[in-house]
Amino acid sequence: MHQEGIAHRDLKPENIFVVSMSPVWVKLGDFGISKWIPAEATTTFHTQVSTPVYSAPEVLGLDSHSEASDYTNSVDIWSLGCVIYELLVGERLF
To answer: What domain of life does the UniProt record list for this protein's source (predicted)?
Structure first.
């Protein structure tokens, strides 16, 4: 997805669908707030989007009443880590 220039920006268990268990095949859904990034662009985002419990710190630090921090599609990696933690431990990280 990132190789194709797409930042999902809302990875969470509800948006991950297991299509098959043998072989394991997973699909992502709900691309409503995803963003396409042209290959030549050095895009950063400023908008506070996503589900807070799975959001990276730089996204949570955004406040509509203050200057927004920049963040990149790397916030998807943080969200995926939160989902994997929840799968392994059985409860949310935060």
So the answer is: Eukaryota
Query: Residue 10 in contact with residue 33, Cβ under 8 Å?
Result: yes
* Residue positions annotated with a catalytic role: 10
Taking only the tens place, the pLDDT of each residue in 50-84 is 788 998 887 777 545 444 466 778 889 999 999 99
**Six-digit token pair at 40?**
């030549």
Give the pTM. 0.76
Distance CA 41, CA 5 (A): 10
Cα-Cα-Cα-Cα dihedral of 15, 91, 93, 20, to 10°?
A: -30
Q: Do residues 15 and 83 make contact, with C-beta atoms less than 8 angstroms apart?
A: no
